[in-house]
Amino acid sequence: MIEMFDERIVATGRLPLLGFFVAFLITFVLTRVNVRLIRSDARWWFRNVTAGDLHIHHVVFGVVLMLAGGIGSLAVPDAYTGLNVSAAVVFGMGSALVLDEFALILHLSDVYWTEKGRASVDAVFVAIAVTGLLLLGIRPLGYEGIAPDPGTGILTRVYVASLVVNLVFAVLTLLKGKIWTGLIGLFVPALLIVGAIRVARPGSPWARWRYAPDSRRYQRAVRREKQVRRPLIRGKIWVQEFIAGRHDLIPPELLQRRAEAADRARRRRLERAERRAAARLAAGAERRAERRAARRAERRSATRDGSRRGAVVPSRIPGGAASRMRARAAARQARDARTGDDFPPGFRPGGRLPPAPPREPAAPQPDDPP
């Protein structure tokens, strides 16, 4: 085992790449364990790193580590293998932290636990696959054993031609929506040929450009998507959630749309309430105006009929008091009409009789005896 390690890793100069690969794997696993425990709100575990109200994502620490590891690998001479391995380890740790929040960088939004957050796991899996193939000694965009020939140049031309063909097939496969086939095909060119020949996925750019909605190719692409791709995608999602946790939170933009819809509904309710209150105020003002007009008309009518004796014209008197005063005036008028001239002038019905005037003595008659 040690001899194989020395022969395939150390002797071929892949020791820094191995350090990067191991550090990348360990850092990704520990990061996912950490964030899942934080999400479950375990009391005995750490909490999110914050500075006041600011949540500092671990992509920040990843960028710092990648910068330190990259500069260190460039600054250390090739002869210092240990330092090169250390720089590769630091770079691998930073790369894992950055790719674990690849979806945040892609969408510029905190979509870590949403459906869009699965893009981070896809990016990590791609990095692991590419690094693993490089560790196995498989070179991208070329065949193993083919190298430039400084003599005749035939092998050089063959290598360049194969490189161009592989690049064309890789671009065509990616345009057809087959990401994994295109990436792995960079190391296994036979997959690029298969991906370039087969029909594209329904939502890919190639399908939008080349397939009509009612064409046979588009129908075949939809049928193959349902029969082959969907089961594979469900299996991939199961593996991702087993390793990285469930991405089941509501996306922030959907929450924003829901909040905006609730705010619009609240404003509509307030506007309806204000319109109803204004309508009630207008109706009340109209009723009050009608009552005032009726009272003014009643006062004018009473003024025209005020020539009667004892008539009372209510002026600025509340409605109930005016009615009582009119009733009393009508009663007095009725008593005056019944009595007529039976009482002397100045007599008020219901009052006392005025005192009788003094009587003068009668003059003596001539026939009266002295």
UniProtKB/TrEMBL annotation:
Compositional bias per record (Low complexity), positions renumbered to this chain: 321-332, 342-351
Chain positions covered by the region annotation Disordered: 280-370
Record protein name field: Integral membrane protein
Species of the source: Actinomadura monticuli
Lineage top rank: taxon: Bacteria
Membrane-spanning parts: 15-35, 56-76, 88-108, 120-138, 158-175, 182-200
Basic and acidic residues bias locations: 285-308
Composition bias type Pro residues, residue spans: 352-370
